[in-house]
Amino acid sequence: MSASACLSGLRAWCEGVRLWVMMRHLGTILIATLIAALVWIFAEAESVRTREIRIEVEVQADPGSDRVVTVLDGGFKEIVDIVLEGSTTELEGAERLLRQKKIRLAPGVEGISPEPGEQAVDLRTALRAAAGLREAGVTIKSANPSSVRIEVDSMVVREATVRVDVGEGELEASPEVRPAAVKVIMPSRVASALTEVPVVTARLDAAMLKPLVPGRREVLGAVPVKPSGVLSSSAMRLRLDPPAVEVAVRLRNKIDSVTLPTVPVLVRIPPGELSHFDIAVDEADQLVRNVKISGPADLVDKVRREAIKVVATVTLSFSDLEKAAGSTVSKEVTFGDLPPGLTADVPATSVRVGVTRRTK
Question: Which residue, 135, 217, 245, 256, is most buried by CB atoms nearer than 10 A?
Fold first, then answer.
């Protein structure tokens, strides 16, 4: 082997050794870099940070509670800006928790006494307990607003009479309600201000009345009742038991009729002929008998109560007077003075009228 070949082989071997050493060092560097990155990521996740979050809250008692809450601060809009402190991981978990739903602050939670009376609620304390932030491992550094004034009251039971409102509907008789009274669970402050038995209303709207058959007794079930009268202003803080009632009604027929035993007869002639003729209705025909008046129920009711007077009219023209002078004429009666919508039906429609010309 020549000297030049030996030298080339030695050089190749040395280059291989150098590459091998470099690869070992590169692996060590990569492992060290990876470990450093993991340590940084873990440290970043566990480092203490702060984060500002806007949340929605509701200050009210839990459903079914014997307490009711009134917020006394008129400017409180149920929005609170809080600053949380914790690790990155804890902050992310707390933020997810807070954004899931509106946070309820109810009497009995830490920071809110369940005893009746006014109190100032520290929102940092109440939110930390109510929102489960203590378990999440974060603290509330600040809250804006920092507090809110509330009044806690106890709930009492009073009985209220049920009134039925049929709107524009007309009933033949008073409605029947079962039960006729309901229990109203109300704040004691509202109850102490009552001076009479409270009233709740069961309203029958047009949609409920439309399918009913007039003149027939119909029963409507599960008609909702709502506070009315003195209870209206406190409706949001009341509970009704039961919340609905059963109502039986009988709608008045829209078309009604009444038969009048007698109706007087009135004769009309041209005003200019009053001084020229004497008119006399036969004594037997001065009243028209058994006149049936039909039409809208409200107008027929007025006829029944004599708020609308019904008269039968005989009209004689100048020509009629001239032809009938000195004799008796038979004329048909009319009911033209009836209000629009009303009609008259009468068995006998003619009366006898005597006409006499006056002498000068």
Answer: 245
CA distance 94 to 127: 12
**Which amino acid, one-letter code, is at 159?**
E
Q: Which residue has the tokens 């002929």?
A: 273
DSSP 271: G
CB 87 within 8 A of CB 43: no
And the tokens for 45?
């996740």
Dihedral of the alpha carbons of 124, 126, 132, 137, in degrees to the nearest 10: 30
What six digits make up the tokens of 44?
């970043």
Q: pLDDT tens, 131-182?
A: 777 777 888 899 999 999 999 999 999 999 999 999 878 888 899 999 999 9
> Alpha helices of 47-174 — where are they, by DSSP H?
88-98, 123-130, 133-136
48 membership: H or E segment, kind and range: strand 48-59
pLDDT of residue 243: 94
**Residue 229 CB: number of other CB atoms within 10 A?**
15
Q: Which residues pair with 53 in a beta bridge?
A: 82
- For the stretch 96-129, pLDDT in tens is 888 888 889 999 999 999 999 999 999 999 988 8
In this structure, the strands spanning 181-187 and 139-144 are unpaired
Q: Token pair for residue 324?
A: 């009938």
Judge whether residue 15 has pLDDT over 70. Answer: no
Strand extents, DSSP E, 176-254 = 176-178, 181-187, 199-203, 217-228, 239-241, 244-250
Helices 3-46 and 88-98 pack at an angle, to 10 degrees, of: 50
Report how far residue 138's alpha carbon sits from residue 130's, in angstroms, rounded to the nearest whole number.
13
pTM exceeds 0.85 for this model = no
- How far is the C-alpha of 225 from the C-alpha of 346, rounded, in Å? 48
